[in-house]
Amino acid sequence: MDFATIIQILDSTVRLATPLLLACLAGLYSERSGVFDIGLEGKMLIAAFASAAAAAATGSVWLGLLAGIFASLMLAGLHGLASITFRGNQLISGVAINFLASGLTVLLGQKWFGLGGRTPSLEGAARFEPITLPFAGSIAPVPVLGPIYSELISGHSILVYVAIALVPASAWLLYRTRFGLRLRAVGENPAAVDTAGVSVTGIRYAAVAITGILCGLAGAYLSTALAAGFGREMTAGKGFIALAALIFAKWRPWYALAACMLFGLLEAVSIRYQSIDLGFVMIPVQFTQALPYILTVVILAGFIGKAVPPRAGGEPYVKER
Amino acid sequence: MGGADISGRQSSAAPFAIELRGISKAFGPVQANKDISIQVAKGSIHGIIGENGAGKSTLMSILYGFYKADAGEIVIDGKVTPIPDSQSAIRAGIGMVFQHFKLVQNFTVLENVILGAEEGGILARSLARARKVLADLAREYELDVDPDALIEDLSVGHQQRVEILKALYRQADILILDEPTGVLTPAEADHLFRILKGLRDQGKTIILITHKLREIMETTDTVSVMRRGTMVATVRTAETSPEELAELMVGRKVLLQVEKAPATPGKTVLEVENLRVRDTQGVERLKGINLTIRAGEILGIAGVAGNGQSELLEVLGGIARGIGTIRLNGRELDLTGRHSDGQSRRADGIAHVPEDRQVLGLIMDFTAWENVAFGYHHAPEYQKSALLMDNDAIRADCEKKMATFDVRPPIPTLAAKNFSGGNQQKIVVAREIERNPDLLLVGQPTRGVDIGAIEFIHKQIVALRDAGKAVLLVSVELDEIMSLADRIAVMFDGRIMGERLPDQTNERELGLLMAGVSGEAA
Amino acid sequence: MGRMPKWADAVLVPLLSLIIAFVISGLVILAIGEDPVEALKIMVTGALGSTYGWGYTLYYATNFIFTGLAVAIAFHAGLFNIGGEGQATLGGLGVAVACLMLPWPHWSLALLASVVLSAAFGAAWAAAPAWLQAKRGSHIVITTIMFNFIAAALLNYLLVNVMRPRGQMDPASARFPAETNLPDLHQMLGWFGIPFAKGTPANVSLFVALIACVAVWAIIWRTRLGYEIRSFGKSEKAAIYAGISPVRITMYAMLISGALSGLMAVNTVQGEANRLLLNSVEGAGFIGIAVALMGRSHPVGVFFAALLFGFLYQGGAELALWTKIPRELITVIQALVILFTGALDDMVRVPLKRLFLASGRGGQ
């Protein structure tokens, strides 16, 4: 494997990890506030569709992005309604949201575009184009550093940089601000927040809304940056890989970055190679694809560093007597 | 009545720190608080004492804005102050230390203290200020806690200090503590009371809710006694005695005299030696229990709730694990392994009427007949074949038991939740007694049960004794213990304080033992 | 009394939820510019108007009975088994092994073998998440989701690298011998002289599903195990008082659940495709959730809910054929049913309870 190949694999790692990272951070907010969300997949999917549809209709990727965020927020609101207001089962609500998105995207896509659920191909201003960072061209010939800067770091769409910037931003918000303190507290012990005179419901809705926005970004990235348009079921389980990454990261932003990069790398490798020959054993591509899930189960089992979810996760808050 | 003008340390002309006027609160048909009035003087420690279920916690929840009272008003510093939510309570200067701490376990002390009382959106400033305030408070009131420690690493006593610090950080002038010593060691409790006295001397008003007489006597200036939702008396602590308070707490009810012949105890059925139990949080709940029960004898365990009686029943009944020795008819029971579960205990001949029938004894959504088989669903007479249960047989058995125990309505297909408390209890008692066990464990057999059913259940327990069986009776109702037991052991703080014979003791003596004041052993 | 009667809780609440879901679905159809009444007519005619339609409706319903029962029995133990997809995938593997392993002389013997192996494979796939839940406290919902994906990858690997016959391009197993092919409804009813359309996929597995309904009903309401499962599901504390082991019940409930999911493969793999394909489950594992929720976890309810979803599936295919409405409409309806009968249950139940309370007061 030569240097250029490594750069290429890492480059595609970054591109493939971005939607995972956005969705993973999205899930982080909701779950840290005590609302489990297995509906990341659905929110990403509907956002991907809405973004591509709006971008195709208006020719503006930015309007597309807004539409994606709005659509994802709607489903997030539904999840909040079911799990916060009506104290329903958060997992069942998540399942329903995934199906709703899966059905609605095709239904509306067929109605609007008649392309069997796809949206028209996006081009020009209707897509997020790669951004060339300053001096990328002039540094390119420098050995090692040149390709790393010009090919790996430069040349991604704006959402890639946003996603990466969201990691320190989320860490700061969670650990350094009042909102973060309350959000984390509400996921650990809502009674502590309630008795401190702060609304549990308000904080949880805020968290679920942030989840909606970030899933919107993730979906928009899929259909307007990574691909040039929406295709049915285009999330293909990425929401669940993001969920796995979230558990793998033990619900922490920097770990989430590492986990998503790892899972992105696995995806990049499995796209490029059918199987990996380690000399003494052949690793089939399916194993690479399943590795994120296997790793997550191992982590959940607590054999290597137990992943402890937020203590109040999954439970609707009911005031005690 | 409750509103007696007892003003503690101040002249009665000054407004009270807090005053409740005619507070009432009902949950469905249950009247948790009936026309409660109290006045608490500024800069005093006021105790509220009463048994479990007397309505103390409901009253405090109303004060802290968790519940809305059906009637009555709250007056703070002479002003009528509605408290619709916790925020209003905090604003009114009320701080609450709950029995179950409201702390975030994986947060630091500082983070817990500022939660909800932050200044501005960025934490750094709030944390810096809180650090300073905490240092001051620590100096002033002996409230030292490492501000950077995680709650989960702190002892229970220190966690409680964090709760007090939280309240003080919010500049609470009125501090309410709900059963604060339930989880503390005696040394920690003493420290707590020093802190509370220090706070009082600085002008804070403290309301101490407890069922422990000793704490009231040692700490408070005035004390109110609650019983069954009403405030039965408010007195100056200096002018009362533990005996008087114990009487007020338990109340003088019509003594239900159970007709029973003198016991004729036979061979030893149950021997318990040095039994120790820890709860899930690692707090030792039983600290070396020794007792024996013979055939044809009822041993009554008296004591204020929460002193280890529940744990004793749970270990004997195969719900909790423990260390020590338990022998039944001379055979040692498994306390930790495969045979320490409820099925093994039943096979050994132990039946258990649990303290909380709605949580343990019955599945409320199950029908009466399903509940009649609960725990005995392996019994041969309930099986049709190797695989199938004989539901008809269970239903028939249920009908029979309902007739014998006069369960009303006698409908086996009615769900347990649709029976009255007394009839639910009769279903449980019927199920357990009809097994003819060698040892019957009974916890609070008549809690929430109407008079008629009480008498009936008592008779059944005596009948089992007369049939030569051993009975362990746990009750917080002294009357019940006095009239049923052949021997009385009093539990306090996970230990047996002493044993008495019912005809050689009185409520006063038992009350002192229950309060941890021992005549003989320490 | 003013209390909500049992029948209202068991029938009225899910029925109202269903009506809300259908009304919203109707609005969705209106929104995409089609006529809901016309759509319903096409669905009814296509799915129920002929024995041909019934042949498909019953085929789908068979799948949903199995997966619905699987979710239902786990619900009774207070567990949410979202891993029906993975367990059914493994069940398919079991069927393939059964059918390809030995030269069966008759379909009935092959059926017996594939029933045993599909159930065993499905149960095995549920065992790991169950054990992790019971012993290590790993959240069973997350682990079963992960196991769905791992199952998909495993099957993909086996089909591509192990089971695919030489020279065949698509990732699928070899065709099963003709002796293993299960009789369809046309054949079976023909034995009794009852005419039924040819060429529909409904087959003898339907009767296996019906037997499973009865078996699950008997397990839950007639055996000690079922009694213990229900006790544990209602109250873990009380179950421990009664000497019921949480670990044992979690394991048994999930093993039965996994076995039922696995059985679904008999219908799709042996009954229809006659070979193991990549995606033979087609989301039926998830539909089981909707079916169990709607059927209130009772085998009779599950049966009718499965029929309803079978009707929706076949009707949806007809819609896609005759109108511009894509069959994904069914996915939307399914989502709404799960949402209203599952997550937003209280939205329907609480007002209804109040209504009964008010009418009870009025009557007194």
UniProtKB/TrEMBL annotation, chain A:
Instruction: Name the UniProt key words of this record, in alphabetical order.
Output: Cell membrane, Membrane, Transmembrane, Transmembrane helix
Locations listed in the record: Cell membrane
**Lineage, top ranks:** Bacteria, Pseudomonadati, Pseudomonadota, Alphaproteobacteria, Rhodobacterales
Q: List the Pfam families hit by this protein, alphabetically.
A: BPD_transp_2
The record's GO CC annotations read: plasma membrane
Q: Which CDD domains match?
A: TM_PBP1_transp_TpRbsC_like (cd06580)
Q: What is its main location?
A: membrane
Q: What is this protein called?
A: Nucleoside ABC transporter membrane protein
Automatic annotation (TrEMBL), chain B:
- The highest taxon in the source lineage is Bacteria
Q: Does the keyword ATP-binding apply?
A: yes
Q: What GO molecular function annotation could you give as one example from this UniProt entry?
A: ATP binding
- Keywords from the named record: ATP-binding, Cell membrane, Membrane, Nucleotide-binding, Repeat, Sugar transport, Translocase, Transport
Q: Gene3D superfamilies from the xrefs?
A: P-loop containing nucleotide triphosphate hydrolases
Residue span(s) of domain ABC transporter: 18-253, 270-518
The family database entries (InterPro entries) matched by this protein are listed as:
AAA+_ATPase, ABC_carbohydrate_import_ATPase, ABC_transporter-like_ATP-bd, ABC_transporter-like_CS, P-loop_NTPase
Q: Which SUPFAM superfamilies match?
A: P-loop containing nucleoside triphosphate hydrolases (SSF52540)
Which regions form coiled coils?
A: none
The subcellular localization recorded is: Cell membrane
The entry's cellular-component GO terms read: plasma membrane
Q: Which PROSITE patterns match?
A: ABC_TRANSPORTER_1, ABC_TRANSPORTER_2
Give the record's membrane topology: Peripheral membrane protein
The answer to whether keyword Translocase applies is yes
Pfam families per UniProt: ABC_tran (PF00005)
> What does the similarity note say?
Belongs to the ABC transporter superfamily.
Descriptive protein name: Nucleoside ABC transporter ATP-binding protein
UniProtKB/TrEMBL annotation, chain C:
| Superkingdom of the source species | Bacteria
Subcellular location as annotated: Cell membrane
Which molecular-function annotations from GO does this UniProt entry contain? transmembrane transporter activity
Task: Provide the transmembrane region boundaries.
Answer: 12-33, 53-75, 87-104, 110-128, 140-160, 202-220, 240-264, 276-295, 302-323, 329-348
- Any one Gene Ontology cellular component term annotated for this protein: plasma membrane
Does this UniProt record's set of keywords contain Kinase?
Answer: no
What InterPro entries has UniProt attached to this entry?
ABC_transp_permease
Q: Is Transmembrane helix given among the entry's keywords?
A: yes
> Keyword set for this entry?
Cell membrane, Membrane, Transmembrane, Transmembrane helix
Specify the protein's topology with respect to the membrane: Multi-pass membrane protein
Give the CDD domains listed for this entry: TM_PBP1_transp_TpRbsC_like (cd06580)
What's the protein here called? Nucleoside ABC transporter membrane protein
